[in-house]
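Case study 2.
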Amino acid sequence: MSYVDHTGEISAVLRTADDIKSLTYPNGTTTVFTAPGSATMGQFGLFEWNMVAQSSRSGGHFHKTFSESFYIVSGQVELFNGEKWATANPGDFFYVPMGGVHGFCNPAEAEAKMLVLFAPAPPREKYFEALAEIRESGRTLTDEEWTALYAEHDQYMV
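Prediction:
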C-alpha cells in the first residue's frame, strides 16, 4: 500500500493542452509529452507518438530501469519483440517489461498514432529532445558518443 492515510487528499492535477509540450522531428513525426514523470510524481510517463507514413525502424533496444507499453490509437505500427516484427492495429496493446528487447516503426502509407507509457517515469523527454537536436543540427556522432548518449538515457541497443 502506497497511501497510508485513512482519508483522501486534494492532490489531483489537471494538465491542459496549453501546459503540454511537444516536439516535432525533421521528418514530421511528433511526440507529445502528455504526462512526463515531472507531472506524475515519477510514477509513470505518458507520451503520444504521431508517426509519419513510412517512418524508419527504431533499432532493437531495451531499458534497465523502466517498462514500456504501447497502445495503438490509429494506423498500423510494426512492433519488435526481440525476435520478430508484428503488425499492430488500433486497439492493440504491447507491453515490454524492464530488459525486454523491442522496437517500432510505421512502414505503412498512412500516418499512425500510439500512446507510449513508461513506468516508473524516467525523464524520457530529455532523450527525445537530444535526438531531435542531433537530427536538426545534422551533427554526426561517433559510435562511442551514441553509446554514451544511450547509456545516459537508459537505452541499450542490441
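The chain has one domain: 17-157.
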